[in-house]
Design a protein that fits this description.
Layout lengths: L1 H18 L3 E5 L7 H13 L5 E6 L26 H13 L3 E3 L1 H11 L6 H4 L4 H14 L6 H14 L3 H11 L8 H17 L3 H14 L3 H17 L4 H14 L6 H20 L3 H15 L6 H20 L3 H8 L11 H17 L3 H17 L3 H17 L3 H18 L5 H14 L3 H14 L4 H11 L7 H10 L13 H11 L1
Parallel strand pairs: 1-2, 2-3
Length: 520
């Protein structure tokens, strides 16, 4: 999403540059927006000050968590309810970091009239997304008391809102549906509680999520579904509530409950349970038992089908086993397991291949196979460049620069650090630029051209004076003439960032699966 944010903001800036007129960007009802849109708003606000433009944000409702926006509203007519905690934090951050005009909706018309700018209303311009369709269908049925299809309509609407991370909207739908819960089948009620529990979990309200999951578990009449709910509960305890031992106990209970069941879906479910059980051991640093449970999971998935869920967990397992080998310092075994994905390359998406090559390079680097690591990183960078993925171009280029620095190929290292720098400029990611400039300066210093390195840093600090990276570079300058001490070595270690063994996530599972099914 970082790349999407950068592309959207770049397009908006180009529009301002070419229109030749004053422009008003309206972020209408920003408190309804998802986190990615708020990031676009924040980024645009930072970059707009040199343009003939103004950024306007309106708020549609008050929030108990945000006393700055306290004008009254009729909450019954609002399609969303109060902000999720993470979204609210982003709004606070946006308020601190930007200086856009923040207006009540009643004031926007006067502003647009003064600017001679015509903005279409939200109702006329809103695309009929699947979420809008499912919501409209559900609310119309409730309004007209036509409840024959309520079971399917509420699940369709909830599922779409949860999967698009619109959790407040999901809660609004439940508020609207709650008077008619008695009309729903028990199976539907259980699914509703599961979806809302997932929503609360992503909103960081874990206790509420647990309560809903436990209520769903109590009322479910399907043994396999109960194990799926127990998986969610165990996942919360293991990854969010720091209680992997309780998580493991719940998993063992789920495995026992489905012990007599057979079939593809059951084998896939057992695989997920053993996979999570392995994680509970990782959390306790018991890598041996973690590995044993991953192997058990693999045995069960071999008996499963080739559904999307089965392929997803199998890929996840292979990745996890590779990571476990790496944790156990068996890097050669980790690389061997990871390279089982080689056969997917020709059929997979470029996103998968980019991540695959980066991790392959990171493992090769750990094995001190620098030549092949560089080759894999360059291939990964090429794909990122073809995708205009500046975010990962930056990371990959820095890794290449670091390996070349270690190989004492300082001239080529400078070239790759400049590639990283160019990507950061494209991303408008100015705060970390001094760190990359410091890497370039250190390379020049190693080439015996210390004066060039100093000029690089001085030029950078003329435009970028704030932030931790800028302060670190300023401190580094005080040690420029004393490069044989430990302090200087710490600056070099900070500036020359060695490649990791994964790019945020190992690969894009969804893209891999979609590409494979289309080609089959």
């Amino acid at each position: 999403m970082f790349r999407v944010t950068q592309m959207v903001v770049s397009l908006l800036l180009k529009y301002v540059e070419h229109t030749g007129k004053d422009v008003v960007f309206l972020f209408d009802q920003i408190d309804k927006m998802d986190e990615h849109t708020i990031r676009c708003f924040t980024r645009l606000s930072k970059c707009i000050h040199h343009c003939q433009a103004v950024v306007v944000a309106t708020f549609s409702e008050a929030s108990d968590n945000d006393p700055r926006f306290n004008f009254k509203i009729n909450t019954d007519n609002q399609p969303y309810i109060s902000l999720a905690e993470n979204r609210n934090r982003l709004l606070h951050t946006a308020h601190k970091q930007t200086s856009p005009l923040v207006l009540e909706p009643t004031l926007t018309n006067d502003l647009f009239h003064k600017k001679n700018t015509i903005i279409a209303s939200e109702k006329n311009t809103q695309l009929m997304t699947k979420e809008v369709q499912t919501t409209t269908t559900l609310l119309e049925s409730i309004h007209k008391r036509k409840l024959d299809n309520l079971d399917s309509e509420v699940i369709d609407a909830l599922e779409e809102s949860i999967f698009t991370q619109n959790y407040e909207h999901a809660l609004f739908l439940i508020n609207k549906t709650s008077p008619y819960m008695d009309h729903l089948k028990n199976k539907t009620k259980v699914e509703v509680w599961i979806y809302i529990g997932i929503g609360y979990a992503f909103m960081l309200k874990y206790e509420k999520a647990l309560t809903l999951f436990q209520y769903a578990l109590k009322n479910s009449e399907d043994t396999l579904q109960k194990s799926e709910i127990q998986l969610l509960i165990a996942l919360l305890y293991t990854k969010r509530l720091n209680n992997p031992l309780l998580g493991r106990e719940i998993i063992d209970n789920a495995l026992q409950n489905i012990g007599s069941l057979t079939g593809n879906r059951v084998e896939v479910e057992r695989t997920w349970l053993y996979n999570l059980k392995a994680l509970t051991f990782v959390e306790r640093r018991d890598l041996v038992n973690a590995y044993k449970n991953c192997r058990k999971a693999l045995e069960h998935i071999k008996k499963g089908d080739r559904s999307e869920d089965a392929i997803h967990i199998k890929i996840n397992l292979l990745s996890n086993i590779s990571v476990l080998y790496e944790y156990m310092n068996k890097v050669d075994a980790s690389l061997t397991k990871w390279m089982k994905f080689d056969k997917f390359i020709l059929q997979s998406s470029p996103v998968f291949t980019k991540h695959y090559l980066y991790r392959k390079a990171g493992l090769l680097y750990k094995m001190k196979n620098y030549l092949e690591a560089i080759e894999a990183l360059k291939a990964s960078y090429k794909i990122a460049a073809e995708l205009h993925d500046y975010f990962h171009m930056d990371i990959i280029a820095r890794g290449l620069g670091a390996i070349l620095f270690e190989e004492e190929n300082f001239s080529e290292a400078i070239q790759w650090f400049r590639c990283s720098l160019n990507a950061k400029y494209k991303l408008l990611e100015d705060e970390d630029i001094p760190r990359v400039v410091a890497a370039i300066a250190i390379c020049f210093n190693q080439l015996g051209e210390s004066h060039k390195g100093m000029k690089e840093i001085e030029a950078c600090l003329q435009t970028q004076t704030k932030g931790d990276a800028a302060q670190m570079v300023l401190d580094m300058l005080t040690q420029w003439e004393h490069q044989d001490n430990d302090k200087w070595k710490s600056y070099v270690k900070w500036a020359i960032q060695k490649p990791d063994s994964k790019l945020n996530r190992p690969f894009d599972l969804t893209n891999l699966y979609c590409e494979r099914t289309e080609s089959s």
